[in-house]
Amino acid sequence: MIYEHKTIYSLVRGLMTTLFLLLCTLECRTLTRTSAHGLAIILACIAVVTSYFTSPLYPRNRLSMKAPVTVCLWTLVLWGSACKKQDVGQVCAQVVQPPPAFLAYWFFPKGSYWVYRQRGSMPAVLDTVRVESTLTRIFQPGDVTYGLPTCTEVHEAHFSHSNRQFFRGYSALDNYAGMEHLFCQGNGTTWAIQQSNEAGNIYSTGLVLAYPFSAPSTALATTGPTLLDTSAVSVPAGYFRRSFQFATSFRDSTASNFLRRYQLSSGVGYTRKIYSQIGTWELISYQIAP
User: Fold this and answer.
1) What is the rounded average pLDDT of the residues 196-207?
2) What is the C-alpha separation between 64 and 58, in angstroms, rounded?
3) This prediction's pTM
4) Amino acid 14: pLDDT
5) Which of 44, 56, 113, 282 has the fewest CB atoms in 10 Å of its CB?
6) Helix H or strand E segment including 44
7) Mean pLDDT value across the chain
């Protein structure tokens, strides 16, 4: 009877050890090693050794006590070395960055703002667009990238509108401030910005700028905007030479509001925006945060 109990206990102990090793392997593959992570492994190992020692059926001699200790120590050593190799393999050797000439048209620090005036409005109708947040991410090999490239800087910027009449938002949590979002993707050779709106029932523009820059009269994509010209732009805020003027694809303006034309200037951003239902908005002042 005692022999049978010993056999059953040995099988249970072997199963626990196998599960423990499997847990170590899975955690090395999916988690970053931290002090809390290492502590969890050590506690699990102690639990296995304790169960080994505390069995009333197993003999307590020095030889039998050395076995679980040796197994546990070797497990920790192998786990640590495996995780170390895994960590090294998950770091990008080189990170691809978008060209500064491309970022200069749209990616600005948090706190930057632009004040636009609706042309012809009396008294003046204004809208202040402010950078609420920016984010730069780099996905390492093995990360969940949601379809985005690895080892490449992925930029995004989020803006708010102050005018609740024409750019009203959808959320009471933001006091119904309209929001606008720009997302950048690239592969080291080509780059593009996608724009989405959460303001005034305005259609999201989608693609707004691509790099390398196109020649005039060229569409950025099959259904994307067309670059009309690269002439200088003159608005109340100033005269800007390095500018692009785009026209978006045709949409039914009776159904909803959308951005028909827009002008982007290097180091400034949007200098003029022409909407299908709410007129032309021109830049009258701006401040780029340091």
Assistant:
1) 91
2) 9
3) 0.69
4) 56
5) 56
6) helix 35-54
7) 80
